[in-house]
Write a structure and sequence with these properties.
9 strands; alpha/beta; nine-stranded mixed β-sheet; 262 residues
C-alpha cells in the first residue's frame, strides 16, 4: 500500500487496458493544476510485452502503472492500493475534465473533513437525475440517483481503514455482472457508517452513455436484478416486478447476488 502524499491533495485515477487504452488516455486533456496529480492504472496481458508510455503521459504529475489483473473492478482495487494522495477521483479513459470543476472539488474536500464519499455531476448524453442541491447520501435512501464512476471521489484512508473494495464479481470483465460495481461500492460504503454527500458541481464530460444506459442486453437485466437484491434487501422483489418483460433475467441476477452475498 502506498503512503499518502499531502502535497498533492487529489489524484485523478484513470483505469484502462492495453495500448489502445493508453492511447485514448494520452488523447485526453489532463490539465496541470495545483495540488492535483494523475495516476493511470493500465491492465496488460501477462504474456505480452509492456506497451510504451505515450509521450503525452510522460509528465511529472502523471504516474503510469501496469498490472496483469483482469476486470475493471480489479483495476479499481489496485487504484485504492496505489493512490498516494488523500483523495482520489475515479475516471475512465474517455473523459474530458473541467479545470474549474476539479479546483472546486479540491476546495470542497478541504472544507468537509467528515465526508468520505463526494459525488457530483458530469456532462454528457442521456438524462441523468441529480438532487437539486447539496444533500447527504444515505445507503437505504438512494432514489433514482445512482452515481457512475466519473461522479465519485473518495477519502482514501477512510476506505482503506474499513477494508472497502470494489466487488470483482461486478463490472466490465466480470464473469456474469457487466456493470453495477459503483452502485455496490457506494451502497456498502454508506452502509458501513461512512458519510457521503452530493455537491452540485460538474467535474467532467463523458461523451457516451454508461453501460446501464446504453444497452438493455440480457446481461444488463441480470446485473440490475443483482444490484436490486444487494442494495434493497427488503424491497428488491417489488422493484423487480415492475419489469415483467424481463422478470426471468432479473430473478436470475437476484439469485446470483444471494448466492454470492453481494
Amino acid at each position: 500500500m502506498e503512503t499518502t502524499n499531502t502535497a498533492v491533495l487529489l489524484q485523478v485515477v484513470i483505469c484502462t487496458h492495453g495500448l489502445d487504452g493508453l492511447m485514448r488516455t494520452a488523447a485526453m486533456t489532463l490539465p496541470q493544476l495545483p495540488r492535483i496529480s494523475w495516476l493511470v492504472e493500465c491492465q496488460t496481458d501477462a504474456d505480452a510485452p509492456l506497451p510504451d508510455v505515450p509521450e503525452a503521459l510522460r509528465r511529472t504529475d502523471i504516474n503510469v502503472r501496469f498490472n496483469h489483473t483482469r476486470g475493471l473492478s480489479a483495476n479499481r482495487n489496485l487504484m485504492l492500493r496505489d493512490a498516494t494522495a488523500p483523495f482520489v477521483l475515479i475516471a475512465d479513459d474517455d473523459l474530458a475534465f473541467h479545470p474549474g470543476g476539479l479546483m472546486q472539488l479540491v476546495e470542497i474536500m478541504q472544507a468537509h473533513p467528515d465526508i468520505t464519499l463526494f459525488c457530483f455531476r458530469h456532462d454528457g448524453p442521456g438524462r441523468r437525475r441529480y438532487p437539486r442541491g447539496e444533500t447527504p447520501l444515505l445507503a437505504h435512501a438512494l432514489r433514482r440517483h445512482y452515481p457512475c464512476s466519473c461522479e465519485i471521489a473518495l477519502r482514501v484512508d477512510d476506505v482503506r481503514e474499513r477494508g472497502l473494495r470494489f466487488n470483482e464479481l461486478a463490472g466490465i470483465g466480470a464473469p456474469v455482472l457487466c456493470a453495477g460495481e459503483e452502485d455496490l461500492f457506494v451502497y456498502h460504503l454508506l452502509d458501513s457508517g461512512l458519510r457521503g454527500r452530493f455537491f452540485p458541481i460538474t467535474v467532467a464530460i463523458h461523451p457516451a452513455l454508461s453501460t446501464y444506459d446504453a444497452v438493455r442486453s440480457p446481461a444488463v437485466w441480470i446485473t440490475r436484478g443483482a444490484v436490486f437484491r444487494a442494495m434493497h434487501p427488503r424491497s428488491w422483489l417489488l422493484r423487480v416486478l415492475r419489469h415483467p418483460r424481463h422478470l426471468r433475467l432479473l430473478l436470475k441476477g437476484a439469485a446470483y447476488a444471494r448466492r454470492n452475498r453481494l
